[in-house]
Specification:
This protein has 230 residues and is mainly alpha-helical. The protein has eight helices and two strands; from the N terminus they run H-H-E-E-H-H-H-H-H-H. Bound molecules: retinal.
């Protein structure tokens, strides 16, 4: 049952990596965006291949599975996506200083979110699991705060970039909020939803958050830059 969506994930992500590169910007301010966004599904393809082939699929004493490749994927891809978001906010900024500090702090919070999530997945059922789940959510709140407050203000220095930035983080926020919900109701949480169903849901989310987001976010930034004559 389960190997099919995992193989599908490998195929979709491999092709998406090439498509994002082929369709993206090869010069100008969005070139870096294209490179980052095509690296993301390349990493995901590697993770799906591992999960499909059974490498790093940890079966715990309670019979639930922790897919270690998924956490390695998230620990690499979410910082790349966020670094892209920070640089897009700075497309609207009058001054560029401070960007490295934002990248460092948002990536730190994000990696802590994924690491705490991995600990929650590995922890036995009970309070311990939910303590680390809550800790991961706390880091996630920090990520969302940086995106919606200081970085939105920076992007907003330029009205068109600010508008594109807010649409992009709106899409990103809605999708990213579903991940902890799937974790909580899936086998790593209360096990209301089966392992096979969770794999399908994560596949759809991954395609939206990595592939659809790459195309739509770049298109919005491109239009905003064209509008301002940059
Ligand atoms: C976990 C479980 C613990 C609580 C929280 C989580 C958040 C995960 C997120 C993952 C996003 C992944 C993306 C991948 C695609 O590139 C670790 C599931 C808050 C937000 C966007």
């Amino acid at each position: 049952m389960t190997p099919i969506p995992l193989l599908l994930g490998f195929v979709i992500m491999s092709l998406a990596s090439l498509a994002i590169y082929a369709k993206g910007a090869h010069s100008g301010p969005l070139r870096g965006h294209t490179l980052v966004h095509s690296a993301v599904p390349f990493i995901a393809a590697t993770a799906y291949l591992c999960m499909y082939l059974g490498v790093g699929n940890l079966i715990k004493p309670d019979d639930s599975v922790t897919y270690l490749a998924r956490y390695v994927d998230w620990a690499l891809t979410t910082p790349l996506l966020l670094a892209g978001v920070v640089s897009s906010a700075y497309l609207g900024a009058r001054e560029q200083e401070g960007q490295a500090g934002f990248v460092a702090s948002i990536v730190t919070l994000d990696v802590m979110m994924i690491v705490a999530g991995l600990i929650a997945s590995l922890a036995p059922y009970g309070t311990l699991k939910w303590v680390f789940f809550a800790w991961s959510c706390a880091a996630f709140v920090g990520v969302l705060y940086l995106l919606w407050k200081p970085l939105a203000n920076i992007a907003g220095q330029h009205p068109a970039i600010g508008a594109a930035y807010r649409k992009n983080i709106g899409f990103l926020t809605v999708l990213w909020l579903i991940y902890p919900v799937v974790f909580a109701i899936g086998p790593e949480g209360i096990w209301m939803v089966s392992d096979a169903a969770a794999i399908w849901i994560f596949l759809v989310l991954d395609v939206l958050a990595k592939v659809v987001y790459a195309f739509t976010s770049e298109r919005k930034l491109h239009a905003a830059l064209a509008k301002s004559g940059a």
